[in-house]
Amino acid sequence: MSTALWFVAAVVAVGTIAGGLMRMRAWLQKPVPPEVIEAAHRDDEDAD
Length: 48
Prior knowledge:
Blueprint: H1 2-28, H2 34-47
């Protein structure tokens, strides 16, 4: 019985990690708003 509980806990942990990684991947693939790009260009000009 104890082995079954460890197996279930491992499956839940792997599923949680995989789900989090998939959500991060989807978030990173979203396009960047133009305001962010403009702000980055302004920051680059200020650094010069």
